[in-house]
User: Which sequence fits this backbone?
């Protein structure tokens, strides 16, 4: 049984590496396109910070929709929501570690989602911080004709040298909310040289709604092996990564 499990695991990692090699080697700039992507969001970070943790959205409403990309916080801040191409990876913090649930049987205090049928691709060079990455995403999106005054989703794929994360598990008895306490309430850690996929929503006009007041984006991630997912706090790498922006 262990040999069979190890064989499956090795095959999965090989396929992941082949996909990454193909995407990075084939990466090239493509022509800009006008977007027709509708982004919907439910709840707001400022409401959460004021102590309103009630359900704003039922993930079951996304279950049978195609090309869905979503992120957010679970009801009562009891987990992190990630949906990549209509596949859920809901992460919860447990005493034994991070638990990943692939069902849609969850509700959200905050949710942002978009339906994206296709993506354009570009290679991006290394960056030393999340803030630097945001600046690069903004510059590339603007150069491709994306309306940077409107929110837009993006994907990031590759092996960053460092990625800091957390999965929230809020104490319902604590009525005082801060960003640092949210990060510390559950589990947190750092990944190094892991093959990951990041989903983000970029906007310079939604601080306190679905981006933090110091950030222009909200990003979640999952590992290619499906064992880890959660909120992305910081990221840096000297290697090239693969950025995807939505096309019409």
Assistant:
């Amino acid at each position: 049984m262990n040999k069979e499990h190890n064989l499956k695991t090795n095959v999965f990692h090989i396929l992941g590496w082949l996909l990454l090699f193909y995407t990075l080697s084939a990466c090239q700039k493509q022509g800009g396109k006008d977007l027709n992507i509708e982004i919907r969001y439910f709840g707001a970070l400022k409401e959460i910070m004021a102590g309103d943790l009630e359900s704003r959205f039922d993930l079951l409403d996304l279950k049978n929709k195609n090309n869905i990309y979503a992120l957010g916080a679970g009801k009562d801040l009891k987990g992190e929501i990630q949906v990549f191409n209509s596949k859920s990876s809901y992460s919860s913090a447990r005493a034994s570690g991070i638990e990943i649930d692939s069902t849609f049987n969850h509700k959200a205090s905050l949710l942002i989602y978009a339906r994206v049928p296709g993506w354009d691709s570009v290679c991006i060079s290394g960056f030393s911080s999340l803030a630097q990455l945001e600046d690069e995403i903004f510059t590339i999106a603007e150069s491709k004709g994306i309306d940077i005054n409107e929110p837009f989703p993006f994907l990031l794929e590759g092996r960053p040298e460092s990625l800091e994360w957390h999965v929230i598990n809020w104490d319902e008895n604590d009525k005082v909310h801060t960003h640092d306490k949210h990060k510390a309430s559950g589990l947190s850690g750092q990944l190094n040289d892991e093959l990951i996929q990041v989903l983000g929503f970029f906007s310079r006009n939604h601080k306190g709604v679905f981006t933090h007041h110091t950030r222009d984006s909200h990003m979640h991630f999952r590992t290619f092996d499906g064992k880890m997912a959660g909120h992305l706090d910081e990221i840096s790498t000297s290697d090239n990564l693969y950025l995807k922006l939505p096309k019409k």
User: Anything to note?
Assistant: The first helix runs from residue 2 to 26. Residues 19-34 have pLDDT under 50 and may be disordered.
